[in-house]
Design a protein that fits this description.
- The protein has 3 domains: 131 residues, Histone acetyl transferase 1 (HAT1), N-terminal domain (Histone Acetyltransferase, domain 1), CATH 3.90.360.10; 143 residues, Gcn5-related N-acetyltransferase (GNAT) (Aminopeptidase, 3-Layer(aba) Sandwich); 171 residues, no CATH class.
- It is 41% helix and 20% strand.
- The longest helix is centred in the C-terminal third of the chain and has 32 residues.
- It is globular, with a radius of gyration of 27 Å.
- Bound molecules: acetyl coenzyme *A (ACO).
- The site of acetyl coenzyme *A has 27 residues, from strand 14, helix 7, helix 8 and helix 13.
- InterPro entries: Acyl_CoA_acyltransferase, GNAT_dom, Hat1_N, Hat1_N_sf, Hist_AcTrfase_B-typ_cat-su.
Length: 464
């Protein structure tokens, strides 16, 4: 890590100006880490020190820096970090005009950077050497792994492979170097405990085009997944972390990782596949893939067709009864047995597949669809479409998501009316209704987004 102090002016003048500032300025307001820190990928030694190299956009750097995410005591602070694409080592260059304690101390940057980059963080000379010394670092892991076969589509780059490795030895070492990227780019992530048995990784790697290239393989992304025992004698696969490096995102590698996990699950007769806290975008990619698989899955077709006819033929705006969109009970099991899609994910896909087949111009039909989502959501949150079981929904601002965090709490509504201490006011009902509608709208937006992708990518399957 290099500490550069730029523009060190005349010491006496500087000290005098500092004294003046201490005398008249308020307490140091600090600098947000996001405003002064940048992270780059260095593919070769020429990229080191250059702000033109590939820039990563970490989702949030502030949370690494104290409670308020701020850095104190620096003027014109700049922290540039380069991560080697070859060895995943990191080198940090820190520059600032001056430091002064403006009432909040001077943040010690070294431990914070070590928290993020751990042992990957090295000095410049060592970092530069990695480009010649660690050329085989990724190849060594790849050659001990098993390539996953897949039917290449026209979109696929044939130089890209998916390789399966057990999280042991060199692969475990590679994961430990990947942790800093995971911390920076996967929101809310924590390192997995690789000492536990049953962890594996899939790596997305690209063979270098030229023999002369420093490294034979370039790492584009990875997923870490775990085998969980399921009583009495099966195993579930749980995807714990998945990351495609920013320059390569949106090129189909996340999809290929998920498809590879599905093919492992099918060929090894795994119980089902789950994902730990998927991000919205990962959920979107996953649902798109699963819906496309389900479009050609014959056993769901009769029930899906019946459901679509019911929605087209009913008028739920009269609300004399309710229509549930749930699939027949045994269908989720049939889907799990063959496609290894877990029940919760199948229920999501089921609603998307219904929407895919509806005529979006048919107002009544779309209203019916919305009414079903509303009833399902209300039932899940408040304990049944026809009653609330005394449960109430309130919007709560949390650090997780201020806009859409809700809490359900119980009132004595369901008990004898004499016991009831809180009366529900009409205005409470209104906000509750508004919140329910907001929740339903969010779900419908997600359904529409995936349905759009499925309609465009599954055109041939829809007309078949
Ligand atoms: C459990 C967890 O780890 S949660 C955290 C997940 N990870 C992160 O958030 C880290 C940052 N993000 C990432 O690493 C990546 O963006 C990921 C892993 C979420 C997704 O991987 P990517 O490679 O970016 O996605 P991919 O390119 O495969 O898919 C992108 C798009 O192509 C679409 N697509 C491409 N091919 C297909 C196909 N054959 N069928 C369906 N959809 C396809 C996807 O649906 C998606 O659609 P869009 O163009 O409308 O956005």
């Amino acid at each position: 890590m290099a500490l550069k102090q730029k523009g060190s002016a005349d010491a006496a003048a500087s000290a005098a100006s500092k004294r003046r500032r201490v005398g008249f300025a308020g307490i140091d307001a600090g600098t947000e880490a996001n405003d002064c820190m940048q992270v780059f990928i260095a593919r070769n030694s020429d990229d080191v020190g250059s702000e033109d190299s590939i820039s990563l956009e970490p989702f949030d750097l502030n949370h690494f820096f104290g409670e308020d995410g701020k850095i104190y005591g620096y003027t014109d602070l700049k922290i540039n970090v380069w991560i080697s694409a070859i060895s995943l080592h990191a080198y940090a260059e820190i520059s600032f005009k001056e430091t002064s304690d403006g009432g909040k101390g001077i943040t010690d940057l070294k431990p914070v950077l070590q928290n993020i980059f751990g042992e990957n963080l090295v000095e410049k000379d060592e970092f530069l050497e990695t480009f010649s010394k660690e050329c085989d670092y990724i190849s060594d892991v790849v050659k001990n792994g098993t390539p996953i076969k897949h039917d290449a589509s026209d979109e696929d780059d044939l130089a890209v492979e998916i390789v399966r490795v057990e999280l042991q030895g060199a692969a475990a070492f590679l994961y430990s170097r990947l942790i800093s990227l995971v911390l920076l780019l996967v929101e809310g992530s924590t390192p997995i405990d690789i000492t536990e048995h049953g962890w594996e990784m899939l790596l997305v790697v690209k063979k270098a085009a030229a023999e002369s290239s420093a490294s034979k393989y370039q790492l584009l992304g990875f997923t870490a997944f775990h085998h969980f025992y399921r009583y009495p004698e099966s195993t579930r696969l749980r995807i714990s972390q998945i990351l495609v490096l920013p320059p390569y995102q949106g090129e189909g590698y996340g999809r290929r990782l998920l498809e590879s996990i599905n093919s492992i699950a099918e060929s090894e007769n795994i119980y089902d596949v789950t994902i730990e806290d998927p991000s919205d975008y990962l959920q979107y990619v996953r649902s798109s893939i699963d819906c496309l698989r389900l479009l050609t899955f014959e056993p769901i077709k009769p029930a899906l067709g019946d459901m679509i006819l019911s929605l087209e033929g009913t008028n739920l705006s009269k609300r004399t009864g309710s229509l549930t969109m749930a699939p027949p009970a045994d269908l989720a099991e049939t889907v799990r047995l063959t496609l290894k899609i877990n029940k919760k994910q199948f229920l999501r896909c089921w609603e998307i597949l219904i929407y895919v087949h509806l005529d979006s111009e048919d107002r009544k039909c779309i209203d019916n669809f919305r009414a079903c989502i509303y009833d399902r959501t209300k039932g899940e949150l408040l304990g049944g479409a026809s009653g609330t079981n005394g449960k109430r929904l309130v919007q709560m601002a949390t650090s997780f998501d201020e806009e859409s965090s809700f809490a359900v709490y119980w009132t004595k509504e369901g008990a004898d009316s004499d016991d009831q201490t809180v009366e529900q006011q009409p205005e409470d009902l209104k906000t509750q209704e508004e919140q329910m509608n907001e929740l339903v709208e969010n779900q419908i937006d997600e359904i529409v987004e995936v349905a759009k992708n499925v309609r465009s990518r599954g055109k041939d399957k829809l007309t078949a």
